[in-house]
Amino acid sequence: MTALAPGALAGLRVVEMGALIAGPFCTKILGEFGADVVKLEPPGEGDPLRKWRYVKNGTSVWWHVQSRNKRSVGVDLRQPEGQAIARALIGRADVLVENFRPGTLEAWGLDYESLARDNPGLVMVRVSGYGQTGPYASRPGFGVIGEAMGGLRYVTGTPDRPPSRVGVSIGDTISALYAVIGALTALAYRRTSGRGQVVDVALYESVFSVMESLLPEFDAFGAVRERTGSIFPGIAPTSAYACADGSHVLIAGNGDSIFRRLCAAIGRDDLANDPALAHNDGRAQRQAWLDGEIERWTRERSPDAVLAAMERAEVPASRIYSVKDIVADPQYRARDMIGEIAIDAGAKLKVPGVVPKLSATPGRYARGGPRLGEHTREVLRELGYDDAALEALSARKVIQLG
User: Which of 119, 127, 266, 341 sits most deeply, having the most CB atoms within 10 A of its CB?
Assistant: First the structure.
């Protein structure tokens, strides 16, 4: 990427402790906007994400997205000397992000109370399956469990099939976004109070919080939202409609004026002029029939023809993109959402761009994921360790020097 001004979070010091997705995705975002993220990893294998899914030159390509911009310190937190290193780093940090099972840091003597005595302004972001309190707090939890308990899995899929997953680790990433929000909110409070605090993010709560009207519908009407495939019951018309070639186009014509434009585009003035369909509540009562009428039109046309007609009518519509479609799309390129980084031996790797877009201090990524322990020597020198001490710690397998 081109040279940019320092990020909005330049000067913010973040320590990451944990692995895989939710906590590290949070710090990825902080790092993209200029924070110095130091990731602590166990010597030997490091974060398991390094080996997940597709591996190129010994490292997962996922790793290069999740850990770009970060500095890696290989340190064994189970050893007292490793815990002392972590405490020293946290003592200089603004934010600590961890996603261990509750109680793990306390067992290492790294509880918030003792850390805050040394660093009263510390913001500690804790991401876990069930939160730090409650009867389930000590249970292990992953994003998929949060999706199940938070209600998302129950409503995902088609009525005639078992509950389905969304296709990505959405429970983890939603939680990571809340972790970022919590960290920045706590930092804003620190500016006026001088005090840090704990940000407690539970995976299941993060998922539950985006479930829209699920709870009030049940409370007021006893309604239990079920799996409905590509439609949204009660909001019509909006669905995926089959085209002549068997592919599908998503059309969202559920606004009253949009619906009228959609009807005009498909040559159905009778629908546009039907008073019973003028508003969403009327259309919702005939949702399946209405979707059938629209699909009768789309099935006779190519997706290009359908999309062209929708664009002329100013009706929201889109192909259902695969990654091949994404890479080829000019909108993605125009918005710098298909980036490229250098990885091992100078090879290039396409990666997603940064979200959101800031006009004065846009986010960026200078490098892909680091080698395990690549920055151990650099970071510990900043703490005052000399080379002799580092070699001694390495010999005792407390740290890994990259």
Answer: 127
| Residue ranges in the chain whose pLDDT is less than 50 | 1-3
Active site residue 329: no
Length of the chain: 402
Which one is catalytic: 36, 47, 94, 172? Answer: 172
* Rounded alpha-carbon distances, angstroms, from residue 363 to 4, 16, 65, 172, 358: 9, 19, 14, 21, 7
The pTM score is 0.94
Interval 305-317: pLDDT, tens: 999 999 999 999 9
Alpha-carbon gap, residue 22 to 179, rounded angstroms: 9
Round the CA-based radius of gyration of the chain to a whole number and report it.
Answer: 25
Token reading at 136: 């389930």
DSSP letter assigned to residue 358: -
β strands within 162-281, DSSP E: 197-202, 238-242, 248-252
Nearest-angstrom CA–CA distance, 133 and 130: 8
- Domains contained in the chain, CATH given: 13-210+333-400 (3.40.50.10540), 238-242+248-319 (3.30.1540.10)
